Amino acid sequence: MATVTIWNEYRHERENDEVAAVYPDGIHATIADFLEDDHEVTTATLDEPEHGLTSDVLEETDVLLWWGHTAHDEVEDEIVDRVQERVLEGMGLLVLHSGHYSKVFKRLMGTGCSLQWREDDGLERLWVVDPGHPIADGLGERIELPETEMYGEPFDVPEPDRLVFTSWFEGGEVFRSGCCYRRGSGRIFYFRPGHETIPIYENEDVQRVIRNAVEWATPNEGAPRTFGERD
Fold it and tell me: Is the peptide bond preceding residue 154 cis, with omega within 30 degrees of 0?
């Protein structure tokens, strides 16, 4: 059982009636609901002291999930430093949807993380392009989302260590929607779906991906390294 912290801006749900109707208790609460049967789950939000990510919270976190959208610039650099340090030490990080443009993700990628986008509530097919990867366990050949926001290439990120999903949209665009990285001792997974006005986190396949990704990103105990004196 991993210790999971779900971080959410929690602004849309309090300020936008359309979003509140979809996620009345916040996106973080919806994700917590389907993870808490298998993990110890806590949540944190932007407007809490230290954004809810104190040193003690992060020290106890095995995997951090990150959802942000309109207030990326309000995240204090001190907290970004803190998260980066924990990832390098081995904490897993799952970056969801518009979290691609968060300070945390841009810092760890070393790029601008920009992309093309369009809001049209069109069809998305996420094709499983690495079916042997643990994050794809239990899925069919694709995930189909009848309504979603389009993200399109070019996506300004480094080449993923492993690419698990590639999306196709009704407009013909494609996008690298499931990207795996390693930074220091920590594993990072970027997962594209999650527009705030559509209940995508209630989709069973999306939930399966997030569950699998938490398992994949949870740090494992490595073999101890021993050093002896040289002869």
Answer: yes
